Amino acid sequence: MKINLNGDVQIIMSNPHSYHNYFAWPTVTRLQNGKIAVVASGFRLSHVCPFGKTVISYSEDEGKTYTFPAPVIDTVLDDRDGGILAYGDKNVIVTSFNNTPDFQKERIEHGKGFSKHCPMKPYRYAYLDSISEEEVDKYYGALFRISSDCGVTFGEMFKSPVTSPHGPTVLSDGSLLWVGTNFRDINKNNCKTPRLSAYRIHSNGKTEHVGDIENFCNDNGKIVLSCEPYATEISSGRILCHIRAQIAGDSAITLYQTHSDDKGKTWSKPEKILPENGGAPSHILKHSSGILICTYGCRKKPFGIKAMISRNNGESWEDSGYIYTNEDSADLGYPSTVELNDKSLATVFYAHPEENEPAVIMQQKWNFV
Q1: Which of 155, 246, 249, 290 is spaced 20 to 30 Å from 89 by Cα?
Q2: Where is 143: in which H helix or E strand?
Q3: H/E run at residue 147
Q4: Would you give the end-to-end CA distance of the chain in angstroms?
């Protein structure tokens, strides 16, 4: 497959007249009313920031223009990783997760998640010190809200046992399956390898455990740290799941693939589908042609967004090259893709336009031959 870029890359979410102009971790989808919707974490100061909000923008012209981002999930904590899925006649679910004030303070002091220093430290501390323990108890975790009117309004906040960047998938029976990192494991002391778990998400906010993806080892026998999965059901009824994977202490990330033939109860042993440090996490789109399109971020030079396709329902993948490249920063990725009315594609991701500029949400339109 050859990638043809359609026009230049667009910035579709930013806030350039404010210090709160860092946006990241988006997801794009087509709503039932024909609009395209993008959610992301926005109005931040940086990669780790107490002011993050999960925001949404809409396009009524096939991604040519978007509305200014508006908050959907805005707790007192750092709301991250916007996921979105349209399902049923008018339902839309938006997902997110957050972290605690103590986690934020640790990052401020030790610099992890920032460049060489933490900008506006007194501002951050003043805000973090204003958050009560009761508020942390109420909002800490993986969160979601559901709309029943095509994303115009959203209902109450629910908590999920799992979290993943792009949220759940809809199965052929209309139910929602969310495969994600088990949040309970994250909170256990000394749990260095959280499980990936599958849950059904019901319209009343109730969650139902379906199954787990067992921890696994790489070719050298080292336990893989697995996280940030994305699952989708293919035409046969099989559920494919891509997993971000890395070894403890190693920054190299790659993709593994597993599948379930019983609606998420049991899963095959994950197999590596990209080379070491090939990139992750990924999103899978089922194109109207029957081809599966996987987009993912690459954080080795040249930094960028790559695509690969499968013509045989995930049995094998063809590396198709770059949709976007960036020589300035490896802080990019988390792409997802939507099919446009003319069968071409729009991939949404985050990146820094220039080395000293904050990250924003970008879109590149393209097609394949």
Answers
A1: 290
A2: strand 142-147
A3: strand 142-147
A4: 6
* Locus of tokens 């973090």: 128
Backbone phi, psi, residue 14, to 5°: -165, 170
Task: Please give the pLDDT value at position 184.
Answer: 82
Is residue 39 a contact partner of residue 66, using CB atoms and an 8 Å limit?
A: no
129 contact partners, CB below 8 Å, separation of at least 6: 101
Of 191, 317, 210, 200, the C-alpha closest to 255 is 317
**Which pLDDT belongs to residue 1?**
75
Chain centroid to Cα 334, Å, comes to 5
Residue 114 is predicted with a pLDDT of 43
Q: Which region, left, alpha or beta, applies to residue 220 given φ > 0 means left and ψ of -120 to 50 means alpha? A: alpha
CA separation, residue 350 to residues 12, 95, 162, 335 (Å): 10, 17, 23, 7
Q: What Å distances lie between residue 126 and 71, 121, 130, 232, CA to CA?
A: 22, 9, 7, 42
Q: Tell me how far CA of residue 359 lies from CA of 17, 22, 48, 81, in angstroms.
A: 14, 5, 12, 14
Question: Mean pLDDT throughout 206-222?
Answer: 92
CB contact at 8 A, 77 and 131: yes
